[in-house]
Amino acid sequence: MKHVAIALLGCGTVGKGIVDLLEKNADLIEEQLDTKITIKRILIRNLAKYERMDLPKSIALTTEFSDIINDDDIEIVVEVMGSADFAKECIEACFKKGKSVVSANKDVIADYGIPLLKMSQEHNVDFQFEASVAGGIPIIRPMYSSLNSNRIDRIIGILNGTTNYILSNMTERGLSYEDVLQEAQDKGYAEADPTNDVSGYDAARKIAILATLGFHSAVTFRDVAVEGIERITQEDISHAEEMGYAVKLLAIATQSDDGISLSVHPAFIPKQHPLANVSGAYNAIYVRGNGVGDVMFYGQGAGAFPTASAVLSDVMNVILHTNLTITGKRGYVWHQVPLVDPSHIEAPYYLRIIVDNAPGVLSSIAGIFAENGISIRSLIQKDETKEVAEIVLLIDSSADGLVRDALQRMTGLSCVRRIANAIRVIEI
Ligand SMILES: NC(=O)C1=CN([C@@H]2O[C@H](COP(=O)(O)OP(=O)(O)OC[C@H]3O[C@@H](n4cnc5c(N)ncnc54)[C@H](OP(=O)(O)O)[C@@H]3O)[C@@H](O)[C@H]2O)C=CC1
Ligand SMILES: N[C@@H](CC=O)C(=O)O
Q: Where is the ACT domain (predicted)?
């Protein structure tokens, strides 16, 4: 039997998951590859923390990347540290030394994916990153391989486990945003800085990676219009429930003759839609191709073992490529495609506006919508006190720019106390 030594950069939630899953499934993996995979070294920052951890004694822990890059036994390096710049430096150094890299790090791939893939090919090594989008769900390989006979025009996903866990637990258990965020952190779903999750940036990086592969287009996460879930309250969730919707953070990429549009935002989805029933840390992705039609991928988008499953399969793929002598030979094509201005994207909206409880307020608001050509589908006045009322509206499909302009003008009305929320309604 052959033997391949690998190293891990990082041993947090995902790194420890890889150590444990490799131990658990070693015989199955060895049998398929006729190769024994050994984790020889792991890079971390704080040695004392890991000496307390239950790691096999055969693994050498180090705080020096040079111990890994200069070890010629190590053929594959698995980067599971997070953040972009140091990870990128390490990955480039590995390529230069002829080491293939597997990464779960969407930050580095959304920022530097195309140059890193080019560099890996120049050095005849593999660069694989299945776990960077939607944890354990196989989606990267389908995008560049299983679906590559299709012209893909739409990708819609719940791509962040933390925010989906927060929104579904706020809905199902009536918990506060802060309490559920802490739970998601305790379960290892959240990023080291959970701002990336709740602000939508984690999902933005993932949809940029999928759009790059699926649309053969050179986009980055900076091309994504991003809104997070920070403003979603129990009020919005219960209004959604009453109206027959679930609230989800969606990542949407579409390609048309006008160009590519990329966005991440909370949305009301009809309860009967399959995406509305994706709960907890689960993720789901709809892809529409002009041959295959609609395909949906579903599974755990975060957590130690689901993510380790994707990472280890990538490691196995690298070994297979080495055995077949096709390492570093994957072909890619990227075009520069124009981006659609996000202010032109149309959708129906749910709006919650806090106003004075006074005569003439509703007609002032309706007047501004009418001036912007926006028609009101329904309007309910709720939670009325003597002084204040909450108005919940659904408006017909309208361009985002026109809706924002109308809401901005409303904040200038003395009877409008605040725009509590504006959330798109998805009718798919
Ligand atoms: N958690 C999840 O469910 C998923 C995570 N990912 C991605 O996988 C990667 C790892 O995530 P996760 O395991 O959750 O992160 P953790 O924060 O749990 O672990 C990070 C690990 O990397 C080490 N590390 C970080 N920076 C450095 C550095 N500069 N030098 C040396 N070691 C470093 C840390 O060491 P120390 O403790 O000593 O600081 C720690 O061992 C991220 O890119 C994340 O986005 C992808 C899919 C799912
Ligand atoms: N923090 C991420 C982890 C996986 O990518 C998430 O919550 O989805």
A: 350-428
Nearest residue (CA) to ligand 2, atom 3: 302
Per-residue pLDDT tens for 9-25? Answer: 999 999 999 999 999 99
Tens-place pLDDT, residues 180-193: 999 999 999 998 88
Q: Would you identify the CATH topology of the domain 2-132+304-323? A: Rossmann fold (3.40.50)
Question: How large is the ipTM?
Answer: 0.99
Separation in Å, CA 5 to CA 75, 76, 77, 300, 329: 6, 7, 9, 28, 22
Whole-angstrom distance, CA of residue 281 vs CA of residue 303: 8
Give the span between the Cα atoms of 261 and 339, in whole angstroms.
6
> In what helix (H) or strand (E) does residue 231 lie, and over which residues does it extend?
none
Q: Domain 347-425 sits in which CATH superfamily?
A: ACT domain (3.30.70.260)
Residues annotated catalytic, as ranges = 206
194 DSSP 8-state letter: T
Q: Where in the chain is the domain with CATH 3.30.360.10?
A: 140-300
CA 120 to CA 90: how far, in whole Å? 13
Atom of ligand 2 nearest to the CA of 184: 7
- DSSP helix/strand/coil, 380: strand
